[in-house]
Write a structure and sequence with these properties.
Distance between the termini: 43 Å
Strand content: 5-15%
Number of strands: 6
Helix content: 55-70%
Largest sheet: 4 strands, parallel
CATH superfamily of the largest domain: Response regulator
Order of helices and strands: HHEEEHEHEHEHHHHH
Radius of gyration: 17 Å
CATH class of the largest domain: Alpha Beta
CATH architecture of the largest domain: 3-Layer(aba) Sandwich
Shape: globular
CATH topology of the largest domain: Rossmann fold
Number of helices: 10
Number of domains: 2
Strand order of the largest sheet: 1-4-5-6
Length: about 210
Amino acid sequence: MVDDHAVFADALRERLLIEADIGPVGVAYSVADAIERLPAQQPDVALVDLLLTDGSGLEIAERAHDLAPATRIMMLTANEDPDEVVEAVLVGARAWLPKTIDPHQLVRAIRAVYVGEVWFDPMLLGAVLPALVARSNAPAPDALATLTMREREVLDCLADGMSRADTAARLQVSLNTVRSHVQNVIAKLGVHSTLEAAALRNQIRAKH
């Protein structure tokens, strides 16, 4: 976790350690502290506040690509600015969650992100998706042509706001199969997350 509010960070750390499958949990209290710790600790998941005393949590998300490539970044912040959410997605953040989130919901989100899913507050998506489309480079018209029919079906479901479990049920395939297709979609489209993939798909369809 990266948070400059020591009381909050330490209390959340103790709460997370209750979960048998989460831990060890380390805490950094600044951007500089986090950047120093990442290469040595290589965490599976990092919960990062946006506004820190010595900079932005987005810098940590961006630097993590080189310092800890396997680390999945989750933004845990009181900020709800759609532009900041878009910036987070573009630097590879897998989640954007409010600090008021219920602890049980937070644990669910951590587990989901750990296995490759993304987790964004549904209340933000209405503003974030159009902003993400506006910030994206113009996609090649044949970008979706690189996807198989099943990969397109999976992307369509996710773009409609369905979870991976719901997508698996609709397409009558296993959850692992959906995860595999999602990984292929992200790789083929050259994006960082399913949210970016959905925005790209919507942008292409709007132009053609």
